[in-house]
Amino acid sequence: MTTRTVTAAPFGSWASPFKIERLTDRVVFLTEARGIDGIRWWLEGRPEEGGRQALVRRDPDGTLTRLTPEGFNARSRVHEYGGGAVLISGDLVIVCDFVSGRLHRVVRPGELVPITPERDWRYADLVHDAGRKRLMAIREDHEPETVKRHGEWNNELVAIDLASGEVTVLAGGSDFYAAPRLSPDGTTLVWLEWHHPNMPWDGTELRQATIGPDGSLVEPRTIAGSPRDWISQPQWSPEGILHFVAEPTGWMNLYRIVDGTIEQVTDLEAELAGPDWQFGYATYAFLPDGDILAVARSDGRDNLIRITWDGEITPIDLVYTEIDSVSIDGDRFVIRAAGPANPAVVADVDLQGDVTVLRTATPYTPDLEDVSISQHIEFKTTGGRTAYGNFYPPTNRSFVGLPGELPPLIVTSHGGPTAAAFSGYATGLQLFASRGYAVLDVDYGGSTGYGREYRKRLEGQWGVVDVDDCVAGAKHLAEQGLVDGARQAIRGGSASGFTTLAALAFTDQFDAGTTYFGIGDLRAFVKDTHKFESRYLESLLGPWPEAEQVYLDRSPSLHAEQITSPVLVQQGEEDKIVPKEEAERIVDSLFERRVPHAYLLYPGEDHGFRSREAIIRSFGAELSFYAQVFGFEPADDVEPLEIRFFDESRARAEGSDAASDGVNPQT
What we know:
Elements: E1 7-8, E2 29-36, E3 39-46, E4 52-58, E5 64-66, E6 86-89, E7 92-96, E8 103-108, E9 111-114, E10 121-129, E11 134-141, H1 144-150, E12 154-161, E13 167-171, E14 176-182, E15 188-194, E16 205-211, E17 217-225, E18 231-236, E19 242-246, E20 253-258, E21 261-264, E22 284-286, E23 292-298, E24 301-307, E25 313-316, E26 322-329, E27 332-339, E28 342-350, E29 355-360, E30 375-380, E31 386-392, E32 399-400, E33 409-413, H2 427-433, E34 438-443, H3 452-455, H4 465-479, E35 488-493, H5 495-506, E36 512-516, H6 522-528, H7 537-540, H8 548-554, E37 567-572, H9 580-592, E38 597-602, H10 612-630, H11 646-660
Parallel strand pairs: 1-32, 33-34, 33-35, 35-36, 36-37, 37-38
Antiparallel strand pairs: 2-3, 3-4, 4-5, 6-7, 7-8, 8-9, 10-11, 11-12, 12-13, 14-15, 15-16, 16-17, 18-19, 19-20, 20-21, 22-23, 23-24, 24-25, 26-27, 27-28, 28-29, 30-31, 31-34
Helix pairs in contact: 4-5
């Protein structure tokens, strides 16, 4: 029997069993899983291929076949976030092309035939109308003439003839469309639509129309929802009964329409659908016996449940706390899932909960002794309210901290901001925890999964409530004696990057910050961002330009003189959601005031890094950044990051400390 050696070393400097390369080494990003007639399908995003997504098929004998050729990116760009990029219907397999926007038919592995014309059009959320030999889809028109006429891209519900590729508009006039769903008998179509300034969770209308002899939509009408009521994921049962998710009770529960009457199926303090950032989400599906398999999220975790016609609920126990892409195939189902100690997988599951893993996102199986299991915590925040988060204590079987030392804390939060903290195994957070950092992933007020009232805390209060909750969480952990209150950093990307910058500008809680493609000037975001989010800030801050002063007051780059802690800014050069000019405005403000900072721009990357080089470099830069700020040597051999004005700032701080102690700093 061997005795394991445990070394005492400064927190943050531990040699981790998880190398940085685990972020990308043979890693794939799994999405859009489904099961049909014993065959399993999913998309794999591959960092070694620049993040391009490949469609993969798994046959019943276990054979894996890549269907899209190398160099092809099976991904949609409608709403920029995409989703719903694949259609599988019998022998018909259709994929979206990220580069051209065109739809392609997969005729055999590695061979594609384009269907749609060469126009500046994008497609998503595809439906096969087999009886009419056509597709239905959401089209986003980027043609220059269209943009000139409408003042922005134009979204429509369209039909696409499979033989000729001719595109016909079925519904137009609304700002946004999603979720076209054809009834089993092919006679009726439902879909979602909404208008500016709404995001989907602000209010959508569920529309229904009969399909006429010529294929057009006859007498479309609203059957549920409104500009103030969120409807999500309409689906037809095999018997032709329409279901959808809505929140009249304050929670996203399941409903159905029977003989023209809306009936509530579940009454849970849980969310059966999340925010519709992408197309094609599937968090419930119909079993052969008429029961429904659904994902219900509460207390920051997903749970799988089985629902009878009468609403009786039976849980199905799984190790996973993040579950989506629910697809039924006979007496089995396919999901994409992850658990606190389980990296993301595509899994095949029977109704007793026995799991067969078909594909893992990483080839590495983490040893439980080195995994920091997230703890869902709650803490008091501004106004005596409660906020939530996932706490990851530093964990490494081979190391402990020095006597009397507490770990530095890294606070992070989800993007969106209308979203939720991820509770599954996240390699990036484990890389921090295994090196001796504590991590808090905050589900601030405005997060989803806690009901409508909690989500609406952020209305008019973005840059206030989220920041307050991040600060409150950091203070709570320090007061509990779990982290060092004098060594705390905050990090985030996109909306979380804004929260990071706002926390640095408007509070003195954090000693450093890292922002990935974060928003610094809210005015610029209104003017420069894409259509889907172009009016998002009206609910988060107020209408523009009427609420201009609010935008000015909460834009961190306009208050860079208040940022005194070092900042690392990381940005994708091709980002259309938060353009690089936004990052450079922040950097210019920091430079002018000689605030310690570093700026890394990644060519070819957009909103979320996908290439191996960018992912590895950006994380290594963070490790070097925190090690310099917190004063220790990282165990990893990472490229040193140059922090402009850092030595100058440290010299000023040391001089100030000496002066305050009555010592002449010049002697």
